[in-house]
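User: Here's a structure from my thesis project, written as structure tokens. My advisor, Dr. K., wants to see whether a designed sequence matches the one we expressed. Can you design one independently, without my sequence as a hint?
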């Protein structure tokens, strides 16, 4: 029987991965989340009368992951004899643009979470580790209005690193370095991924795509957009993100990081227009110029992921936006 550890399991990515592994494997999943942001498992998993989750295949620890990894290696811990197969490390302070720009020292705590996780892994020696870096790790100097390009994996060179996006980007660059060292010095198998803008039906409305869908579902007029709305991102549906994540775990051992995106830059005005077309109305767009917007242009070069993993996204932006919009409509009722 295999046991996998999913830290930050009750967040957006963790919930989607947990459901996928429950559907596609017979393994036992150990979920750890302090619920500072995540949703309690009874909101999204089936819990039986006795409190057993998904027929006993899920164990939930409502804890800071740093406490969990200290306690699990104690001989009195229920899981002490377990050697984790896969470790999916999603516990992080994320929070969106308002937190990245508004509370950067809070985000910097990710350095501590990642350092403790990798140090623990160097002793515990799980079979494989998945570390989610981010597109925020790329240098911001090549994401401006005047100077931008499809971001390719080699644009982050640890020897000549450019300034990434705030403490969030720095913590991801550092996490990637720890992943490389975990492999080279401790023999661990680690895959890093750089998802661009992941989105999906059950994402919190403090992220732009569900937030805009909710405004359009309410038929607001005007529809508000942060900044000019001309800033663009590379949107990728969470189902596609999970596909790449599992492929990366199979194929990458040495901490190499790969992009996960569509390769297409879409700005927020275009997103609003696409939702409004689905909803069948034509409102004004109101720019909120005092809101933080981050980099102007952030999209990826997909060639490395395509060649290394033979992967291209399955869910078009149109289909993904339709799904998110329909969920926003259901939430109204
Ligand atoms: N969603 C995306 O598109 C995207 C893009 C790039 C990178 N990532 C990365 O993927 C990971 C997961 O992202 P997400 O979108 O699911 O974020 P999320 O905020 O939805 O999930 C993070 C989870 O971690 C938990 N958590 C925070 N600190 C913790 C701690 N100390 N101990 C235990 N649990 C803790 C939170 O309660 C939350 O449930 C993050 O590392 C994020 O940077 C996500």
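Assistant: Designed independently from the structure alone:
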């Amino acid at each position: 029987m295999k046991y996998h550890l999913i830290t930050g399991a009750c967040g957006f990515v963790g919930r989607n991965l947990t459901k996928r592994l429950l559907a596609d494997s017979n393994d036992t999943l150990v979920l750890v989340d302090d619920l500072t942001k995540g949703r309690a498992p009874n909101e999204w998993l089936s819990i039986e009368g006795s409190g057993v989750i998904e027929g006993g295949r899920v164990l939930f620890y409502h804890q800071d992951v740093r406490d969990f990894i200290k306690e699990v290696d104690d001989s009195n811990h229920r899981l002490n004899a377990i050697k984790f197969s896969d470790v999916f490390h999603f516990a992080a302070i994320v929070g969106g643009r308002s937190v990245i720009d508004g509370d950067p020292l809070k985000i910097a705590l990710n350095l501590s979470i990642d350092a403790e996780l990798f140090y623990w892994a160097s002793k515990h020696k799980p079979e494989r580790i998945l570390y989610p870096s981010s597109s925020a790790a790329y240098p911001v100097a090549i994401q401006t209005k005047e100077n931008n390009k499809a971001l390719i994996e080699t644009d982050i060179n640890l020897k000549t690193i450019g300034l990434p996006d705030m403490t969030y980007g720095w913590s991801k660059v550092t996490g990637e370095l720890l992943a490389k060292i975990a492999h080279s010095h401790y023999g661990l198998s680690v895959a890093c991924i750089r998802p661009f803008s992941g989105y999906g039906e059950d994402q919190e409305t403090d992220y732009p795509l569900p937030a805009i869908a909710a405004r359009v579902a309410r038929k607001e007029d005007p529809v508000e957009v942060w900044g000019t709305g001309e800033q663009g991102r590379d949107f990728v549906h969470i189902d596609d993100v999970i596909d790449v994540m599992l492929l990366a775990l199979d194929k990458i051992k040495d901490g190499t990081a790969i992009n996960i995106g569509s390769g297409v830059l879409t700005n927020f005005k275009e997103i609003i227009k696409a939702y409004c077309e689905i909803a069948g109305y034509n409102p004004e767009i109101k720019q909120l110029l005092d809101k933080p917007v981050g980099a102007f242009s952030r999209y990826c070069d997909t060639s490395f992921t395509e060649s290394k993993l033979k992967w291209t996204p399955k869910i078009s932006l149109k289909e993904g936006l339709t799904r998110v919009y329909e969920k926003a409509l259901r939430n109204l009722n």
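When you compare it with your expressed construct, this may help: Residues 7-8, 10-14, 32-38, 64-66, 90-94, 113, 132, 134, 195, 197-198 surround nicotinamide-adenine-dinucleotide (CB under 6 Å).
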